[in-house]
Request: fold
Amino acid sequence: MASFTTLYSGSSGNCGLVRSGQGYLLVDMGKSCRITTGALKDLGLSVRDLQGILITHEHSDHIAGLKVFLKHYDVPVFGLPETLDFLANRGDLPAAAQLIAVGGRPEQIGEFTVTAFPTPHDVPCCGYRIATPDGKVMAIATDLGQLTEAVHTSLAGADLVALEANYDPYSLQHGSYPYYLKTRIASPFGHLSNPECAAKVLELVQAGCKKIALCHLSRENNTPELALQAVRNALLAAGVVPEPDVVVQAQRRNEPSPVLEF
Reply:
């Protein structure tokens, strides 16, 4: 059985975990090495079973703990060539780190088959579609201002989808952020709103997806309750009543979320 959780998820730091058997992958490492390894220990996981770290992009809430972690542990890092080059040139990666550039082709990473796909953000950014040895598939897409055709295609048919629900439009509009930042977040190269996420969740559930993880919630412009209510409203408006085995879960900001098996 494969599983997904996040060690932490939100505007203050992101780290996803995909597991099959003993082996697992991490997606991003946006908090310190100490916090990340502590969360792994809480889940009963050893770093020696970590088969790779998948990086979505260069922003600090996705890579803040990576440099120190790689000084202690020899784990390969995968990411877009532009992202890896930027981080290496900025000194965010140890010189001896194993860096492997990814594109649209499937990569065999330990027991997993991983395919990166582009997500529209204000820097080069990607999501990942991950297949496990038993044929299960999950996909993760955060930091995207819109749902492009590439994103739709990459999420289609997944057993579990981890999708950004970054902000509530009313909270963003009436919040304390300066105008330029509000504009950036709501732009086609910013972040995904609760209604946009909810519409996609409805489509995924109607197509048979059983597990949804709502990720990367803004601390200032969203709450788990608002994100979940947006999804519930979209499902009910379409006359969709999830079966008992369909789970929609908002991921926790500062601690591991309940594990979702898929």
Remarks:
- Residues 224-237 form the longest helix (14 residues).
